[in-house]
Write a structure and sequence with these properties.
By secondary structure, the protein is α/β, with parallel strands linked by helices. The longest helix has 17 residues. The N and C termini lie far apart (47 Å).
């Protein structure tokens, strides 16, 4: 069934907003150039339902979430930095990823912007190695220490995507689910452990997990990420693979950043350097509306108190 006139008008207005956001963004305008935008508009208007269209994360202007101030300015700076550091082949690959769904690329650009704000643009380095091996998004020079920065994203599970498709086909944009907590926490754990165990063991690394999935609950997720970050041995991650830090964000809002004290000591990362890195990660994302940030500096009781305060609706 073809789109109604009202639905076509709604999609066109949304595309107009996406295009307008790129007017003063020369780098992003080059990534999403006129030829690409014309082809994407034609494709977006050929669907049978407004729920069928998916927009590349960096191109999209969300109309179902509160607008994050300055988001496209941050993405523009991150794109300019990232693309300028890459070799031609890697540059083309990043552009191709940005033109797809590109949520992980969105996180990469936000991190590049945040770390450059704290350490300077010259402190960012292109990833080392070949494209067919695990590589970080980029490396950052923290004084005389090189640190790898890796971004991983958690999307809806395949079963969730299939349920959405079935709901859309039935003319609905919602569906009823049972208790998902356990299965989605298991999926998140696998994502975190997989991210930690990839990459170079000789270089301290920061792993940033960004959740785009509806489940698990962010506070349940924060519990799990904290546990893995502070004591990776509990999930059979050996000391040589343990990350310097693990951060967790949801929908571009930072929830927590946890550093591993043993790894920091092994790589001689000072307290001052840790706080600069924490600040860079915080500046990469947006703060929670209640200002809360979970860290390794909170003991188990303090962490639990903060979690339950959020669940109870406090700020």
């Amino acid at each position: 069934m073809a789109l109604s006139n009202d639905e076509r008008r709604w999609i066109e207005q949304k595309l107009d907003r996406c295009d307008a956001a790129l007017v003063d963004k020369p780098t992003l305008s080059g990534v999403f150039d006129l030829d690409w935008r014309n082809a994407f508009r034609k494709e977006a208007l050929s669907v049978n339902s407004t729920h069928e269209s998916t927009y590349p994360a960096v191109y999209a202007v969300p109309d179902y979430l509160p607008s994050l101030p300055g988001l496209h300015d941050r993405l523009e700076r991150g794109a300019t930095l990232s693309l300028s550091k890459l070799e031609p082949t890697d540059r083309s690959r990043l552009i191709a990823h940005l033109r797809k769904e590109g949520a992980q690329c969105e996180v990469e650009l936000l991190l590049a912007c945040g770390f450059a704000s704290e350490f300077g643009e010259d402190a960012l380095f292109a990833p080392q190695g070949t494209p067919d091996e695990p590589r970080p998004e980029f490396s950052i020079g923290v004084d005389d220490i090189r640190v790898d920065v890796e971004a991983k994203t958690l999307f809806d599970s395949e079963s969730t995507r299939q349920n959405w498709k079935a709901a859309i086909a039935a003319g609905s944009n919602c569906w009823v689910s049972g208790d998902r907590t356990r299965q989605d926490l298991i999926r998140l754990r696998r994502t975190v452990v997989s991210a930690i165990t990839q990459g170079r063991c000789s270089v301290p690394k920061i792993v940033v997990i960004s959740q785009y999935a509806g489940w698990p609950n962010p506070m349940d997720a924060a519990d799990l990420v904290r546990e893995v970050a502070i004591d990776p041995g509990n999930v059979n991650v050996c000391s040589t693979q343990s990350p310097l830090a693990v951060a967790y964000a949801r929908l571009n809002c930072i929830q927590g950043v946890w550093f591993n004290d043993d790894v920091a000591k092994a790589h001689r990362v000072s307290v001052a350097q840790i706080e600069r890195i924490r600040r860079a990660i915080g500046e990469s994302f947006y703060a929670r509306s209640d200002g809360m940030l979970l860290t390794e500096q909170q003991d188990d009781q303090q962490h639990s108190d903060l979690i339950w305060k959020v669940r109870a609706g406090g700020s």
